[in-house]
Design a protein that fits this description.
By secondary structure, this protein is α+β, with helices and mostly antiparallel strands. Helices cover 27% and strands 31% of the residues. The chain is built from 6 helices and 20 strands. A 7-stranded antiparallel sheet has the order 1-2-3-7-6-5-4, with helices on one face. The longest helix has 36 residues. The N and C termini lie far apart (77 Å).
Length: 379
């Protein structure tokens, strides 16, 4: 009799435990939904910084992730695939019809530019639609370099652009007002100027070396823009390169300063093997870091904080996951003065289908004003 009673007590305890677990799980699900939905609400499109440039979705219920002058990012839940397609068609009808990218099948991805250079990207996954709108890259009329690495390249047809990097090891510039046809014409000019060794030509990319070992990379990055970069051979520098912020110095002073920096920093190049050694030995003083100006905000502590902000922005901009190549993939870490740090790094982004895409992320962080992102782009 006692054994039978004990058996029933055990069954009762087990049943109560199962019910308690189910109730706990249900409670956790409810709390999780409350926390997630807490950031959702009705969106007033007119109050968004870039709201006037955004094609308005039919639904105004969602979550605002980023609302800045350079980028707007929102999530709209409870969206059908047909609503996603209707919205992408609306984007096209409202002017986002340049350099259209529909991904692999057009069912879950859309990216395009408008005439002004605004770039919209729409992703559909798990009945939600993520919309990212980026403002045009800031450019101006520029003079093509007559000294340094830039002078080793043909002058582009357009003189509207932005020089992002200019020292004895690397020259990087973005040129606007350049079509895909003009990109191909520029590639032919580069080939005619000797960049024909170890070459690789794609629909929107061109990589090659000249006979002296200088590495050239030209890419069409959308919105009638191309990216041009040239790197000096490992262990070799261009002795007549002047930085944008060092033009007041004489060429002799530039050579002396460059030589001193190389002695201290062990010759920065964007070659991956050199970066790997530098970052493994001492990550706090990667020799990708170049300071063309020196003030309070050029210190390592401000660089590290700005770098953290930049890397967080990269992760936030890749909703399906991203690998940031911080060991071998840094292309630039430079202090531009007045609190502004510029970063550029190779990344591998996962798309909605789990495929990996090799890309480059770059941006500027204002360490002087709370590490605000003043420019950010992935291409």
């Amino acid at each position: 009799m006692e054994n039978k009673k004990l058996f029933h007590n055990k069954k009762f305890i087990i049943a109560i435990s199962i019910i308690a677990v189910i109730m706990l799980i249900a409670f956790m699900v409810i709390i999780t939904r409350i926390i997630i939905n807490r950031n959702y609400g009705e969106i007033d499109w007119n109050n968004l910084v870039l709201g006037e440039y955004l094609p308005k979705p039919e639904k105004n219920y969602g979550k605002i992730d980023v609302d800045r002058e350079d980028m707007l990012s929102i999530k709209i839940p409870k969206i059908t695939q047909q609503e996603f397609k209707d919205y992408t068609n609306k984007c096209i009808n409202e002017g986002y019809n340049l350099d259209i990218d529909n991904g692999y099948n057009g069912d879950s991805y859309f990216k395009a530019f408008d005439e002004e250079g605004y770039n919209i990207e729409v992703r559909y996954s798990r009945k939600s639609m993520d919309i990212t709108l980026k403002s045009p890259e800031k450019m101006e009329e520029l003079e093509w370099p007559t000294t340094g690495l830039g002078s080793m390249l043909p002058k582009p047809k357009s003189n509207y652009g932005s020089i992002l990097w200019d020292n004895s090891d690397t020259f990087l510039v973005h040129i606007g007002n350049t079509t895909i046809e003009e990109f191909n014409e520029y590639v032919k000019e580069c080939q005619n100027n000797g960049y024909i060794d170890d070459y690789s030509k794609g629909e929107k990319t061109f990589i090659a070396k000249n006979s002296e070992g200088y590495d050239l990379s030209v890419s069409y990055i959308g919105g009638n823009r191309i990216s041009i970069s040239i790197d000096a051979p490992e262990g070799q520098e261009s002795t007549n390169t002047t930085s944008q912020t060092e033009n007041a110095e004489t060429p002799e002073e530039n050579v002396s300063n460059s030589t001193d920096n190389i002695a201290e920093n062990n010759t920065e190049t964007v070659n991956s093997s050199t970066e790997n050694n530098a970052e493994t030995v001492n990550p706090s003083t990667e020799n990708t870091t170049v300071e063309t100006n020196t003030d309070d905000y050029s210190a390592d502590i401000y660089r590290d904080d700005a770098e953290d902000t930049f890397l967080a922005e990269v992760r936030d901009s890749c909703p399906y996951g991203v690998k940031i190549h911080t060991i071998t993939g840094w292309l630039a870490k430079t202090y531009e003065g007045d609190g502004i740090w510029f970063f550029k790094v190779n990344i591998t982004e996962n798309n909605a289908f789990g495929a990996e895409i090799d890309e480059v992320a770059e941006g500027r962080v204002d360490a002087k004003n709370g590490n605000n992102i003043t420019y950010f782009y992935i291409y």
